[in-house]
Amino acid sequence: MSNVLRARRRLDLLQVVLFFVAVLLVVVADAGVTSQYRRKLEATVEMPLDADVFRVPPGYNAPQQVHITLGDQEGTAMIVSWVTANELGSSTVMYSEASPDPEKMELRAEGTHTRYDYFNYTSGFIHHCTLTNLKHSTKYYYAMGFGHTVRSFCFTTPPMPGPDVPFKFGLIGDLGQTFDSNTTLSHYEANGGDAVLYVGDLSYADNHPLHDNTRWDTWARFVERSAAHQPWVWTAGNHELDLAPELGEHVPFKPFAHRYPTPFWYSVRVASAHVVVLASYSAYGKYTAQWEWLRAELARVDRAATPWLIVLVHSPWYSSNGYHYMEGETMRVQFERWIVAAKADLVVAGHVHAYERSHRVSNVAYDIINARCTPVRTRDAPVYVTVGDGGNIEGIADNFTQPQPSYSAFREASFGHATLEIRNRTHAYYAWHRNQDGAKVVADGVWLTNRYWMPTDDDIN
Ligand SMILES: [Fe+2]
Predict the structure, then answer these.
(1) Whole-model pTM?
(2) Residue 13 C-alpha to ligand 1 middle, in angstroms?
(3) Is 210 part of any domain?
(4) What is the distance in A from the centroid of ligand 1 to the CA of 350?
């Protein structure tokens, strides 16, 4: 063989190799990340009933399980909830901008109380009291328990809604009350958000014999350290259903609805965000109340006033985990078209006990006959994140489907929480923190640009 021929063959071979390298690079560039990080394989362990985080506050009939949530759409009302366990305590809340001393608090609100029976359990007296006409961005001291043992707390109201008002949300789901749950909450506290968007599945009381409702009490005492000081926006998950016909319990959401005074689907406006909360376990088919409401609600969103449109839902629409696979599919089919048309920025879900972030994709082209039923990159589409990784008793969901689908940008079977730090109308920093790292370590972070004001291709990683 001549030298010339040999050289040409070598060149051909080189070209073939280069071609395959190029193909490989394209594939790798487009692929998402399935994190190789492996948490220690250990069971999630419920914190025992005598754990310090569950301690009943001292004093006769002392208010316990104190938590607050937003009481109106503008951030000028706050609903304070608590339980008195020994006897029916006062439903009065005293509050003040000026004085942390309950004796000197000059503002007063009267609440109501309720209680419920669940099989062999009777709840304490559950109080709800709405504080109204609050000023924005203002620290308020508040107290309750008058007549018995008084406890006092404080919160800061959210800033007035506006297009460039910065705000930091915590994104937490499926928390439960294990040692991992405690780590998740502590890490969130260390990261310092202003309010929590909670995407459902709170106490996991229903995983205990007879749906042991004392676990609803312990859970609320556990999260009080955060939830009494900043609003938690609640979403209903499947572990809130507490349907148990075998126990004679036929009313869905009975413990949750008595304890958490928010509707199942609703919206709040906080700083520069319009937050829409959906209910995965309430009817959402065409003409249902939730369907009618969402259609009207999306028309009410004013991106000039609140640029960031965030949707909360329990069961994810885009999840590539085998756990709860496709459970959110019917709601996706029903609502995704509207959410893309509305240019929502972020859809936050829980339910699956792992972490995942999607690229901006949609799957709304399919019309029964055109076969276009694959998620495709869509600039107007939201990023979907699943943060059902709070650390509950059911453990981690570590069976991701293989290979990783193209819509999935990053996924990892670890516990943790996320934060969304809105800077202005165009930019927000989204970060996920795994529990095994220091609280401030970002395991998955991405700058999001607003879909209404600056719809750039921000989903390159
Ligand atoms: Fe769930």
Answers:
(1) 0.93
(2) 54
(3) no
(4) 7
Q: What ranges in 31-84 are assigned the alpha helix state H?
A: none
Q: State in Å: Cα 315 to ligand 1 middle.
A: 7
Whole-number Å distance between alpha carbons of 418 and 187? 10
Identify the CA nearest to 221 among candidates 83, 391, 95. 83
Query: Which residues does the annotation mark as catalytic?
Result: 324
Which CATH number fits the domain that encloses residue 411?
Answer: 3.60.21.10
> Would you state the torsion angle of the CA atoms of residues 388, 393, 399, 401, taken in this order, to the nearest 10 degrees?
-30
What spacing in Å lies between the alpha carbon of 177 and ligand 1's midpoint? 14
Is the peptide bond preceding residue 403 cis, with omega within 30 degrees of 0? Answer: yes
Do the domain assignments include residue 185?
A: yes
Instruction: Give me the domain span that covers residue 411.
Output: 162-194+271-449
State pLDDT tens for residues 396-447.
Answer: 999 999 999 999 999 999 999 999 999 999 999 999 999 999 999 999 999 9
Examine residue 86 and state whether it is found in any structural domain, yes or no. no
Model pLDDT, residue 393: 93
The pLDDT tens digits for 43-101 are 789 999 999 999 999 999 999 999 999 999 989 999 999 999 999 999 999 999 999 99
Closest CA to 32 of 453, 368, 418, 400: 400
